[in-house]
Amino acid sequence: MKASLAAVSAAVVATAVSAGPIEKRARLGLTFVPPSSSPLAQSSNYVGFNNASYPKHDTVSGKAFDRIVQIWLENTDYESAISTPAMQALLPQGVLFDNYYAVTHPSEPNYLASISGDFWGLGDDTFNHIPSNITTLFDLLDDGGAGGKPISYACYQENMPYDGFTGFNYTSKNYITPGASNYTYYVRKHNPCAMTDYISGNKTRALYNRNFNDLAADIGNNTVPQWSFITPNMVDDGHDTTSAFFSNFTNYFLPSLLNETKFNDNRTLILLTFDENDSYTAANRIFTLALGAGVPSSLKNTTDHTYMTHYSAISTVQANWNLKSLGRGDVNKTMANVFPFWADTLGYTNTQVDDADIPMTNLTGIYPGPLSPTANTLFYAPDDVTVTGAGGQPVLVKSGLNTSQTLATLPRTNLTAIGQKPVWNTDPGYNNVNVSQGANSAGTNAAKTNAAARPFVAGTGIAAAAVFAGFALFL
């Protein structure tokens, strides 16, 4: 990922093109229908009402903000996004980051990178999970860094059936087209909380993997955590629909939240962005807008051209609360510049990256890692566990991680060639039903591992031997 845009050869670009938009589905000719009267109200179109399950946490003061909310939409080129009525209406209220990039294609590896600082060689949207001894942003928030006080967090997923749900997808009542067949509104691949065993494999933390009825209730109860990740459903985020559709959703969803002080006070930062662009042959630039009452009024309706990526959201959080680092993409001096209007406040010096030197991040399916089927490895430690991150703290290394096993030291196996799949494509079978609330008859549970994924069988060759030999280190 060091090559400049100008230096990428036609052959490499051809690789990205041949990989294609793996996850794209036909854009449906649908008309936006609000799921409820307001995003502040719970909806019967979802599955199960909230039962006030999120505990109240102490607020830990940050250097620049006390709450950060990320809202991710889907698969849209920068130019298309910025031209929508919703984004045009929001621009005067925030700072436009016009040089912000996704880190790869397709969707799932970007969501995964947003909390682990790596996409682990993933180049598709299969069922995947990350072992508990791999440090994620959630570990850093729980650790508290220099202050030692945990930072509260949650993921809010529209149309997810219940807290802690780990299924591959969920099909529920079609509220967009009444009388039509049930629709798969929720998908796991857009949910970073579901992908890590640290959350999904722990009954207490599974509570922090929540849905939109929880969001409405948590706002009303004034229990919205200090870090949150919000994913609209597959039509509202634009994945299965159009720019006009997600624009209408944004007009419905954001104004009410921006005007609600329990969600947006003068210490709140809201990052509205996209997972990736829609053009695999173009640089992976995405529309990103910093909003919230915490944004200095003097900077609203301005544009900043500092080069940033999804890793910047991690480094900014680390710098704000003096957290430890992951030692991965979050410490990449090129790709993890912190949000520039707070760089001085955060005590961090960003790296100037000229447009011609911006790394190519639109390639997919060519990187090695534990989630790659063609260049498969064990999970690996950071290259340098002594590096200091944006929070001025060291790397957080978890128990059970072999720090001598870095990507460069591990063998790579073409599992596809021997008819196997990465072992981490297999559903580990966590059962978090009724962690706080259960599903009801309004939905049809389609929770399952991707049909193409299957577990390794011991004794089936080099790959199986390598993976099972590593289980003692990585589980």
UniProtKB/TrEMBL annotation:
<keyword id="KW-1133">Transmembrane helix</keyword>
<keyword id="KW-0732">Signal</keyword>
<keyword id="KW-0378">Hydrolase</keyword>
<dbReference type="InterPro" id="IPR007312">
    <property type="entry name" value="Phosphoesterase"/>
</dbReference>
<keyword id="KW-0812">Transmembrane</keyword>
<feature type="signal peptide">
    <location>
        <begin position="1"/>
        <end position="19"/>
    </location>
</feature>
<dbReference type="GO" id="GO:0009395">
    <property type="term" value="P:phospholipid catabolic process"/>
</dbReference>
<dbReference type="InterPro" id="IPR017850">
    <property type="entry name" value="Alkaline_phosphatase_core_sf"/>
</dbReference>
<keyword id="KW-0472">Membrane</keyword>
<dbReference type="GO" id="GO:0016788">
    <property type="term" value="F:hydrolase activity, acting on ester bonds"/>
</dbReference>
<dbReference type="Pfam" id="PF04185">
    <property type="entry name" value="Phosphoesterase"/>
</dbReference>
<protein>
    <recommendedName>
        <fullName>Acid phosphatase</fullName>
    </recommendedName>
</protein>
<feature type="transmembrane region" description="Helical">
    <location>
        <begin position="456"/>
        <end position="474"/>
    </location>
</feature>
